[in-house]
Amino acid sequence: MLHTIDIDRILTENFALQSLRPKQKEVIDHVLHGRHTLALLPTGYGKSLCYQVPSMALDGITLVVSPLIALMQDQMSGLTRRGIASATVLNSAIAPDEYERRLEGIAQGRLKLVYVAPERFDSPRFRSLVENLNVSLLVIDEAHCISQWGHDFRPNYRTLKNHLALMPEATVLALTATATPRVKQDIINSLALPDMAVVETSFDRPNLHFQVFCCANDYEKDQRVLKAMGSDQQPTIIYTSSRKQSEELSQRLQKSGIAAGCYHAGLPSHVRQRAQKAFEDEKLPVIVSTVAFGMGVDKANVRRVIHYNLPGSLENYYQEAGRAGRDGQDARCTLLFQARDIHTQRWLLKRNFPSAAQVQDVLNFLRRASAKSSYPLRSTDILSAVKIDDSALNSAIDLFKFLEFVTSAPDGIVLTPKGQNPSNSIDMSFLQQRERREEDRLDLIVRYAQSTTCRRRVILSYFGQDLDGLCAGCDVCHKVIDEPATEDLYKRPDDGPRKFGGRAASRSTANSSDKREQRRPGINDLSATILELATELKGKFGRTTIASVLSGSKASKLKTQNLTKLSSYGRFSHMSNNDILDTIDTLVAEGQLRVVPGPYPKLVATAGQNNG
Hints:
The chain is of the alpha/beta class. Helix content is 43%, strand content 14%. The strands form 5 sheets. The chain has a 7-stranded parallel sheet, sandwiched between helices. The chain has a 6-stranded parallel sheet with strand order 8-13-12-9-11-10, sandwiched between helices.
C-alpha cells in the first residue's frame, strides 16, 4: 500500500495540485485500501481525481464505465493537456487498426486508465479481454444511471453487476453528483455490494446564487439575459430546450454586440469542438446550448449559468447549474420561467415514451427481421421501417431488454427466443412507471420555480439533505441580483420601437406593454372563463382548442364541433392566442387545471375550482 508521500507526488507532478479536498482524500483512501465505495459529490467537486490519481498508483488497470462518448473524450483531452499518456478510450467510433493498437497497449501495461461505455461489455471479445487483465479498480461514473429511480436510467448500467465476476480483484468505485436517498440505496442494492462505504458531502454550493424570474414571453427572457450579461461579458452558459432556440438566441445576442457561440448535437463535430475550445480559451465568453454542452468541459471560472427554458427535473437543473463557479468564486444560476415551458417539457417527455401500438410495431419488425437474418439490428434499421421517434425507440428497446426479449450486441440488438415467441405479450408497466416518475420530476422543478421558500433548501431537501445554517444566496432570502427596471422591459410607443439584436421589434411586440396594461384587469376574468369553459367541455378538448374558442378563431373545426355557439366564443378576441395559452399554462402550473395524458392531451378543471 502506498504512503501519503506517493499520492502527494502524483498530485504535484501530474495535476499541479498541492492537496486534495477532504472527501476526495477519503474516497482515495478507501480505494487504495480495496474498499468498495459510493461517492456522492456535487458537480465541480473534482470526482474524476478520485479515480485518476489511484489509477497512477495501483498496479493493475483502472476501467472507467462512462455513459457518453463525448464525456470520455473530454476527460481524455484534459489528461492529454496534463501530459498523461497512460489513458485511452475503447468505443465503436475507433478505427479497427487503432482499436487493435490500444488493446495491445492495455495488454502490455502501457495504458492503465481505460474508458468504456457500458455497452462494451456486450462484446464477448471485450469480456474475454477483461477476464485476462488485472483490473484493480472498476469505476462507474454517473452511477445514478444504474437506478430506475434516477433521472437518466440506462438498462446497460443495471447489468454491470453481472460482469463483476470477470474482475474478482477489482475495487468498485461508483460516482455521482445527483442522487436522491432512494437512488443512492438503489445503486448499492443493484450492484449487490451491501458493504459499500458511502462518502457524501453536502450538495450545497455556497458560492452559487440561485434566482428565478417569471417571464411572460421570449422578449422578456431576452431582456433578462441582456441585463444579466451587462457590459462585462463574463463566461456564461445559456441552456435552451431546443437546437433551434440555441441557434436563434445566439444570433440575437451576436446582433446585440455579445460574442455568443452556439453548441448542440446537430452541429458538425468540428464546429462543436471549435466552439468549445474558444469558450474554454476565453476567446468566446458566451455559449448558448442544449444540454449537450457542459459535461466534462474543463472550465472552472463560469460566472453564470442561465436556463432560458425550464429543465425537466431538479437533478438536471442542479447538475447543469452546478457548472458555474467551480473555482469557488461567486457565480449566478438563473432560471427564466415561463408557464408555457411546462407544456413544452410535457411534450418532450411524451416524445420519450412510445405507445403500446408503436412498441408492438417495433417487436413485429424485429421478429420479421430475425426470421431472415441472425445479424444484430441497429436503431437506424428500425427507424427506417417503423414510424417512431428515436427517443421513443430507445425506450422501447429498454423495455425489451427489461422483458428479456432482446440482448445487446456490439453492433445492435438481437432478439432472444423469448422475444421470438408470439405468445409472449408485452407488459407496458415498466415504461408506464418510468413515465410517471418523469412527470413527478417535472412537477417538482415547477414547484421549485414557483416556490416562495429558500431555493437552496428546496434543492437540498430533494437530495435528502438539510441546509446547515443560513442561506448563502437565493432570490427568496436575499436581494434579487440584476432585476431589470420596468422601463427596460416595457417602453411606451412614444419612446420609439424597442430593439433587440439591432432590429426593431414587430408592431405587436412594440405595443404589447400598452395592451398588457389595458387588459391587466381582465386577466382574472380570463382565468375564470377558462376554468368555466374547461368544466363545460367536460375534458373533451385540449389547450389549443380552448384558446381558439376564447380568441374567436375562424378555424372550420370549431364550427363543425358547434364550439362557435358557446357563450364564451370570442369573448377575449382582443387578446392574442399566445396570451390565452400562457394563462392556461399558468392555471395548469397552479393546479387549477389538470392535463389528461393521451395522444391528444385534454384539459379538465380541478374539482372545486368553480364554486365561488
